[in-house]
Amino acid sequence: MKTDENLGRAESGATMVIGIFMAVLLVGVLYYLWGIGEAIVYRQVMQDAADSAAFGGAVINARGMNLIALLNVIIAAAAAVETIINAIVSGLILAAAIATIVCIVTYGSSGCDEAATHAEEAVDMEDVRSDVEDDMEDIIDLASTAATTIRYTYPALALVKAEEYASMYDPPVTEGFLLPIDGLPVEEDDSDWPCDEKVAPFASSQAPIGTLICCDIDIYLLIGAASSMGFAYLHADDWCEDEYFLRVVEDAKMGDDNFQVRAYMHGDYPFEAAQERVGIAAWGDTDGAASPGESLQEIANWSFAQGEFYFDDDMDEEEWLWHMMWRARLRRFRLPLSGSVPGGAGGLSEIIDVVIH
User: Fold this and answer.
1) What span, in angstroms and rounded, lies between the C-alpha atoms of 29 and 341?
2) Is 106 exposed, middle or buried (0-12, 13-18, 19+ CB in 10 A)?
3) CA-CA distance, 22 to 141, in Å (whole number)?
Protein backbone atom coordinates (compact mmCIF):
# COMPACT_ATOMS: atom_id res chain seq x y z
CA MET A 1 0.00 0.00 0.00
CA LYS A 2 1.35 3.40 -1.01
CA THR A 3 1.85 6.07 1.58
CA ASP A 4 0.93 9.71 1.18
CA GLU A 5 4.58 10.46 0.42
CA ASN A 6 4.62 8.15 -2.59
CA LEU A 7 1.15 9.02 -3.88
CA GLY A 8 2.41 11.97 -5.93
CA ARG A 9 5.01 9.75 -7.64
CA ALA A 10 2.57 6.91 -8.41
CA GLU A 11 2.32 6.09 -12.16
CA SER A 12 0.06 3.06 -12.15
CA GLY A 13 -3.16 3.71 -14.12
CA ALA A 14 -1.61 6.52 -16.19
CA THR A 15 -1.90 4.47 -19.37
CA MET A 16 -5.55 3.87 -18.66
CA VAL A 17 -6.23 7.57 -18.25
CA ILE A 18 -4.43 8.38 -21.50
CA GLY A 19 -6.29 5.55 -23.21
CA ILE A 20 -9.64 6.94 -22.10
CA PHE A 21 -8.81 10.36 -23.54
CA MET A 22 -7.53 8.81 -26.76
CA ALA A 23 -10.64 6.63 -27.10
CA VAL A 24 -12.92 9.62 -26.69
CA LEU A 25 -10.85 11.61 -29.19
CA LEU A 26 -10.88 8.79 -31.73
CA VAL A 27 -14.64 8.43 -31.40
CA GLY A 28 -14.99 12.14 -32.11
CA VAL A 29 -12.67 11.88 -35.14
CA LEU A 30 -14.63 8.88 -36.42
CA TYR A 31 -17.91 10.74 -36.30
CA TYR A 32 -16.24 13.83 -37.74
CA LEU A 33 -15.18 11.80 -40.80
CA TRP A 34 -18.62 10.22 -40.91
CA GLY A 35 -20.17 13.68 -40.95
CA ILE A 36 -17.92 14.78 -43.81
CA GLY A 37 -19.03 11.78 -45.87
CA GLU A 38 -22.68 12.47 -45.12
CA ALA A 39 -22.22 16.12 -46.08
CA ILE A 40 -20.72 15.06 -49.42
CA VAL A 41 -23.67 12.75 -50.09
CA TYR A 42 -26.09 15.50 -49.08
CA ARG A 43 -24.49 18.00 -51.47
CA GLN A 44 -24.52 15.46 -54.30
CA VAL A 45 -28.23 14.73 -53.85
CA MET A 46 -29.04 18.43 -53.63
CA GLN A 47 -27.08 19.16 -56.81
CA ASP A 48 -28.66 16.23 -58.63
CA ALA A 49 -32.09 17.66 -57.80
CA ALA A 50 -31.14 21.12 -59.08
CA ASP A 51 -29.54 19.72 -62.25
CA SER A 52 -32.60 17.58 -62.97
CA ALA A 53 -34.97 20.51 -62.51
CA ALA A 54 -32.87 22.89 -64.65
CA PHE A 55 -32.46 20.42 -67.50
CA GLY A 56 -36.09 19.31 -67.30
CA GLY A 57 -37.23 22.94 -67.44
CA ALA A 58 -34.99 23.65 -70.44
CA VAL A 59 -36.36 20.56 -72.23
CA ILE A 60 -39.96 21.67 -71.65
CA ASN A 61 -39.21 25.19 -72.93
CA ALA A 62 -37.44 23.74 -75.97
CA ARG A 63 -40.49 21.62 -76.69
CA GLY A 64 -42.63 24.73 -76.42
CA MET A 65 -40.46 26.55 -78.94
CA ASN A 66 -40.64 23.56 -81.30
CA LEU A 67 -44.43 23.47 -81.03
CA ILE A 68 -44.65 27.20 -81.77
CA ALA A 69 -42.43 26.65 -84.81
CA LEU A 70 -44.79 23.87 -85.96
CA LEU A 71 -47.82 26.11 -85.44
CA ASN A 72 -46.17 28.89 -87.44
CA VAL A 73 -45.77 26.43 -90.33
CA ILE A 74 -49.42 25.33 -89.99
CA ILE A 75 -50.60 28.95 -90.07
CA ALA A 76 -48.43 29.61 -93.13
CA ALA A 77 -49.77 26.51 -94.88
CA ALA A 78 -53.39 27.50 -94.26
CA ALA A 79 -52.66 31.06 -95.39
CA ALA A 80 -50.92 29.73 -98.49
CA VAL A 81 -53.97 27.64 -99.47
CA GLU A 82 -56.28 30.63 -99.43
CA THR A 83 -53.63 32.82 -101.05
CA ILE A 84 -53.34 30.33 -103.91
CA ILE A 85 -57.11 30.34 -104.48
CA ASN A 86 -57.22 34.14 -104.34
CA ALA A 87 -54.37 34.33 -106.85
CA ILE A 88 -56.16 31.88 -109.18
CA VAL A 89 -59.35 33.95 -108.99
CA SER A 90 -57.40 37.12 -109.78
CA GLY A 91 -55.65 35.38 -112.68
CA LEU A 92 -58.96 34.21 -114.12
CA ILE A 93 -60.48 37.66 -113.81
CA LEU A 94 -57.46 39.06 -115.65
CA ALA A 95 -57.78 36.41 -118.35
CA ALA A 96 -61.52 37.19 -118.75
CA ALA A 97 -60.78 40.92 -118.87
CA ILE A 98 -58.14 40.55 -121.58
CA ALA A 99 -60.41 38.26 -123.59
CA THR A 100 -63.25 40.80 -123.25
CA ILE A 101 -61.02 43.60 -124.49
CA VAL A 102 -60.01 41.49 -127.49
CA CYS A 103 -63.68 40.66 -128.13
CA ILE A 104 -64.58 44.37 -128.14
CA VAL A 105 -61.62 45.40 -130.29
CA THR A 106 -62.30 42.69 -132.89
CA TYR A 107 -66.07 43.36 -132.84
CA GLY A 108 -66.83 39.88 -131.54
CA SER A 109 -64.76 37.94 -133.99
CA SER A 110 -62.31 36.72 -131.36
CA GLY A 111 -62.08 36.31 -127.60
CA CYS A 112 -65.76 36.47 -126.76
CA ASP A 113 -66.21 32.77 -125.98
CA GLU A 114 -63.01 32.73 -123.96
CA ALA A 115 -64.14 35.81 -121.99
CA ALA A 116 -67.40 34.11 -121.03
CA THR A 117 -65.66 30.86 -120.17
CA HIS A 118 -63.04 32.45 -117.91
CA ALA A 119 -65.60 34.71 -116.27
CA GLU A 120 -67.66 31.64 -115.38
CA GLU A 121 -64.53 29.87 -114.11
CA ALA A 122 -63.72 32.90 -111.96
CA VAL A 123 -67.21 32.76 -110.41
CA ASP A 124 -66.86 29.02 -109.72
CA MET A 125 -63.43 29.51 -108.16
CA GLU A 126 -64.79 32.36 -106.04
CA ASP A 127 -67.39 29.94 -104.66
CA VAL A 128 -64.58 27.53 -103.81
CA ARG A 129 -62.71 30.34 -102.10
CA SER A 130 -65.76 31.21 -100.01
CA ASP A 131 -66.13 27.57 -98.93
CA VAL A 132 -62.46 27.24 -98.05
CA GLU A 133 -62.02 30.66 -96.43
CA ASP A 134 -63.91 29.89 -93.22
CA ASP A 135 -62.11 26.60 -92.71
CA MET A 136 -58.67 28.13 -93.27
CA GLU A 137 -59.38 31.06 -90.99
CA ASP A 138 -60.62 28.69 -88.27
CA ILE A 139 -57.39 26.72 -88.56
CA ILE A 140 -55.32 29.91 -88.39
CA ASP A 141 -57.23 31.27 -85.39
CA LEU A 142 -56.90 27.96 -83.51
CA ALA A 143 -53.21 27.64 -84.29
CA SER A 144 -52.53 31.25 -83.30
CA THR A 145 -54.41 30.81 -80.02
CA ALA A 146 -52.55 27.56 -79.32
CA ALA A 147 -49.18 29.25 -79.94
CA THR A 148 -50.04 32.08 -77.54
CA THR A 149 -51.19 29.55 -74.94
CA ILE A 150 -47.95 27.58 -75.25
CA ARG A 151 -46.00 30.80 -74.90
CA TYR A 152 -47.30 31.32 -71.36
CA THR A 153 -48.14 27.82 -70.12
CA TYR A 154 -44.96 25.90 -70.90
CA PRO A 155 -42.77 27.87 -68.45
CA ALA A 156 -45.45 27.17 -65.84
CA LEU A 157 -45.26 23.46 -66.74
CA ALA A 158 -41.50 23.67 -66.27
CA LEU A 159 -42.10 25.07 -62.77
CA VAL A 160 -44.45 22.19 -61.97
CA LYS A 161 -41.76 19.78 -63.21
CA ALA A 162 -39.22 21.40 -60.91
CA GLU A 163 -41.55 20.87 -57.97
CA GLU A 164 -41.94 17.22 -59.00
CA TYR A 165 -38.16 16.81 -58.94
CA ALA A 166 -38.08 18.40 -55.50
CA SER A 167 -40.57 15.78 -54.32
CA MET A 168 -38.54 12.98 -55.94
CA TYR A 169 -35.45 14.02 -53.98
CA ASP A 170 -37.30 14.49 -50.69
CA PRO A 171 -35.52 14.00 -48.34
CA PRO A 172 -33.33 16.00 -48.16
CA VAL A 173 -34.91 18.48 -50.63
CA THR A 174 -37.82 20.36 -49.10
CA GLU A 175 -38.78 22.73 -51.91
CA GLY A 176 -37.71 23.81 -55.37
CA PHE A 177 -38.63 26.34 -58.00
CA LEU A 178 -37.59 27.50 -61.44
CA LEU A 179 -37.13 30.96 -62.93
CA PRO A 180 -38.18 32.66 -65.11
CA ILE A 181 -41.84 31.69 -65.52
CA ASP A 182 -43.19 34.79 -67.27
CA GLY A 183 -43.37 33.26 -70.75
CA LEU A 184 -41.22 31.98 -73.58
CA PRO A 185 -39.06 34.60 -75.36
CA VAL A 186 -41.42 35.06 -78.31
CA GLU A 187 -43.68 37.88 -79.49
CA GLU A 188 -46.16 38.70 -82.24
CA ASP A 189 -44.42 39.29 -85.56
CA ASP A 190 -45.56 42.69 -86.84
CA SER A 191 -43.38 42.54 -89.94
CA ASP A 192 -44.19 41.25 -93.43
CA TRP A 193 -41.30 38.78 -93.34
CA PRO A 194 -43.43 35.61 -92.82
CA CYS A 195 -45.70 36.55 -95.73
CA ASP A 196 -42.89 37.63 -98.05
CA GLU A 197 -40.54 34.74 -97.26
CA LYS A 198 -42.82 31.82 -96.34
CA VAL A 199 -46.38 32.24 -97.63
CA ALA A 200 -45.87 34.12 -100.89
CA PRO A 201 -43.03 32.04 -102.43
CA PHE A 202 -44.95 28.79 -102.02
CA ALA A 203 -48.25 30.29 -103.14
CA SER A 204 -46.69 31.93 -106.20
CA SER A 205 -45.15 28.64 -107.28
CA GLN A 206 -48.43 26.74 -106.97
CA ALA A 207 -50.95 29.31 -108.21
CA PRO A 208 -50.00 28.95 -111.93
CA ILE A 209 -50.22 25.17 -111.66
CA GLY A 210 -53.64 25.40 -110.05
CA THR A 211 -54.82 27.83 -112.71
CA LEU A 212 -53.79 25.54 -115.54
CA ILE A 213 -55.32 22.47 -113.88
CA CYS A 214 -58.72 23.94 -113.04
CA CYS A 215 -59.55 25.72 -116.26
CA ASP A 216 -59.61 25.52 -120.06
CA ILE A 217 -56.19 26.38 -121.41
CA ASP A 218 -55.82 29.10 -124.02
CA ILE A 219 -53.62 32.11 -124.56
CA TYR A 220 -55.67 34.22 -122.16
CA LEU A 221 -55.46 31.62 -119.42
CA LEU A 222 -51.70 31.38 -119.89
CA ILE A 223 -51.47 35.12 -119.29
CA GLY A 224 -53.68 34.79 -116.22
CA ALA A 225 -51.65 31.87 -114.90
CA ALA A 226 -48.41 33.81 -115.27
CA SER A 227 -49.98 36.82 -113.59
CA SER A 228 -51.18 34.70 -110.67
CA MET A 229 -47.58 34.51 -109.45
CA GLY A 230 -47.61 38.25 -108.80
CA PHE A 231 -51.13 38.17 -107.41
CA ALA A 232 -49.94 35.62 -104.84
CA TYR A 233 -47.51 38.16 -103.38
CA LEU A 234 -50.24 40.79 -103.21
CA HIS A 235 -52.71 38.50 -101.42
CA ALA A 236 -50.11 36.98 -99.10
CA ASP A 237 -49.46 40.30 -97.35
CA ASP A 238 -53.02 40.27 -95.98
CA TRP A 239 -52.06 37.54 -93.52
CA CYS A 240 -49.41 39.64 -91.79
CA GLU A 241 -51.78 42.47 -90.93
CA ASP A 242 -53.32 40.61 -87.96
CA GLU A 243 -49.97 39.38 -86.57
CA TYR A 244 -50.85 35.70 -86.54
CA PHE A 245 -47.20 34.61 -86.60
CA LEU A 246 -44.79 34.58 -83.65
CA ARG A 247 -41.07 35.33 -83.68
CA VAL A 248 -38.23 35.34 -81.15
CA VAL A 249 -38.12 38.61 -79.24
CA GLU A 250 -36.17 41.34 -80.99
CA ASP A 251 -32.50 41.84 -80.09
CA ALA A 252 -32.32 38.36 -78.51
CA LYS A 253 -28.97 36.65 -78.91
CA MET A 254 -28.55 32.91 -78.65
CA GLY A 255 -27.12 32.13 -75.22
CA ASP A 256 -28.36 35.27 -73.47
CA ASP A 257 -30.72 35.34 -70.49
CA ASN A 258 -33.79 35.02 -72.72
CA PHE A 259 -32.95 31.33 -73.20
CA GLN A 260 -31.80 30.42 -69.68
CA VAL A 261 -33.71 28.68 -66.90
CA ARG A 262 -32.39 28.53 -63.36
CA ALA A 263 -33.39 25.97 -60.78
CA TYR A 264 -33.22 26.60 -57.03
CA MET A 265 -33.51 23.78 -54.52
CA HIS A 266 -33.66 24.09 -50.73
CA GLY A 267 -33.06 21.23 -48.33
CA ASP A 268 -32.56 20.37 -44.69
CA TYR A 269 -29.29 18.84 -43.56
CA PRO A 270 -30.47 15.45 -42.21
CA PHE A 271 -27.32 14.33 -40.43
CA GLU A 272 -27.45 16.20 -37.14
CA ALA A 273 -26.71 13.01 -35.20
CA ALA A 274 -23.14 12.86 -36.53
CA GLN A 275 -22.56 16.46 -35.49
CA GLU A 276 -23.82 15.77 -31.99
CA ARG A 277 -21.58 12.71 -31.62
CA VAL A 278 -18.55 14.78 -32.53
CA GLY A 279 -19.23 16.54 -29.24
CA ILE A 280 -18.12 13.34 -27.44
CA ALA A 281 -14.56 14.50 -28.04
CA ALA A 282 -15.40 17.59 -25.96
CA TRP A 283 -17.00 15.47 -23.21
CA GLY A 284 -20.47 16.53 -24.30
CA ASP A 285 -19.69 20.24 -24.29
CA THR A 286 -20.66 21.38 -27.83
CA ASP A 287 -20.77 25.11 -27.06
CA GLY A 288 -18.38 26.75 -29.49
CA ALA A 289 -17.30 23.43 -30.95
CA ALA A 290 -17.03 23.21 -34.73
CA SER A 291 -19.07 20.58 -36.50
CA PRO A 292 -18.30 19.16 -39.94
CA GLY A 293 -21.19 20.92 -41.64
CA GLU A 294 -21.71 23.93 -39.38
CA SER A 295 -19.62 26.44 -41.32
CA LEU A 296 -21.12 25.53 -44.71
CA GLN A 297 -24.56 24.40 -43.67
CA GLU A 298 -26.40 27.61 -44.54
CA ILE A 299 -24.92 27.65 -48.03
CA ALA A 300 -25.16 23.89 -48.44
CA ASN A 301 -28.92 23.97 -47.84
CA TRP A 302 -29.31 25.58 -51.28
CA SER A 303 -28.45 24.17 -54.67
CA PHE A 304 -28.46 25.98 -57.98
CA ALA A 305 -28.35 24.83 -61.58
CA GLN A 306 -28.82 26.43 -64.97
CA GLY A 307 -30.27 25.00 -68.15
CA GLU A 308 -30.48 26.49 -71.62
CA PHE A 309 -32.78 25.92 -74.57
CA TYR A 310 -31.23 26.85 -77.88
CA PHE A 311 -31.70 26.69 -81.65
CA ASP A 312 -29.36 24.02 -82.97
CA ASP A 313 -28.38 25.65 -86.26
CA ASP A 314 -26.70 28.80 -87.57
CA MET A 315 -29.72 30.11 -89.50
CA ASP A 316 -30.73 33.76 -89.28
CA GLU A 317 -32.81 34.83 -86.31
CA GLU A 318 -35.96 35.12 -88.44
CA GLU A 319 -35.80 31.38 -89.11
CA TRP A 320 -35.61 30.30 -85.47
CA LEU A 321 -39.35 29.85 -85.07
CA TRP A 322 -39.83 28.11 -88.41
CA HIS A 323 -37.86 24.94 -87.76
CA MET A 324 -38.26 22.37 -84.98
CA MET A 325 -34.59 22.42 -84.06
CA TRP A 326 -34.72 23.62 -80.45
CA ARG A 327 -32.66 21.60 -77.99
CA ALA A 328 -31.76 21.74 -74.29
CA ARG A 329 -28.53 21.48 -72.32
CA LEU A 330 -27.06 22.27 -68.92
CA ARG A 331 -24.86 25.32 -68.47
CA ARG A 332 -22.63 26.39 -65.62
CA PHE A 333 -24.68 28.48 -63.22
CA ARG A 334 -24.33 32.22 -63.52
CA LEU A 335 -26.41 34.96 -61.95
CA PRO A 336 -28.51 36.91 -64.48
CA LEU A 337 -26.35 39.56 -66.15
CA SER A 338 -23.50 38.78 -63.72
CA GLY A 339 -20.94 38.98 -66.50
CA SER A 340 -21.74 42.64 -67.17
CA VAL A 341 -22.18 43.89 -63.61
CA PRO A 342 -18.95 44.86 -61.85
CA GLY A 343 -18.29 44.29 -58.19
CA GLY A 344 -21.19 42.76 -56.30
CA ALA A 345 -22.70 40.45 -58.92
CA GLY A 346 -19.33 39.03 -59.86
CA GLY A 347 -18.57 38.34 -56.21
CA LEU A 348 -21.89 36.59 -55.78
CA SER A 349 -21.06 34.40 -58.75
CA GLU A 350 -17.87 33.32 -57.00
CA ILE A 351 -19.88 32.42 -53.90
CA ILE A 352 -22.31 30.43 -56.06
CA ASP A 353 -19.35 28.52 -57.49
CA VAL A 354 -18.77 27.15 -53.98
CA VAL A 355 -22.32 25.81 -53.80
CA ILE A 356 -22.29 24.05 -57.17
CA HIS A 357 -19.74 21.78 -58.77
Assistant:
1) 44
2) exposed
3) 80
C-alpha count within 13 angstroms, C-beta hemisphere, residue 29: 6
The residues, ordered by sequence, that sit 6+ positions from 302 with a Cβ below 8 Å of its Cβ are 46, 264, 265, 266, 267, 355
75 touches 140 (CB < 8 A): yes
Taking only the tens place, the pLDDT of each residue in 205-229 is 999 999 898 888 889 889 999 999 9
- How far are the Cα atoms of 78, 149, 233 from residue 157, in angstroms, in the given order? 29, 12, 40
Is 305 strand, coil or helix?
Answer: strand
The DSSP annotation for 199-226 comes to IHHHHHHHHHHHHHHHS--SHHHHHHHH
Q: What is the pTM of this model?
A: 0.78
- Round to whole Å and give the CA distance between 272 and 37: 13
pLDDT tens string 258-294: 999 999 988 877 655 555 555 555 555 555 544 544 5
| Residue 162 host element (H or E) | helix 112-168
DSSP assignment string, 66-133: HHHHHHHHHHHHHHHHHHHHHHHHHHHHHHHHHHHHHHHHTTTSSSHHHHHHHHHHHHHHHHHHHHHH
Q: What is the rounded radius of gyration, in angstroms, for the C-alpha atoms of the chain?
A: 37
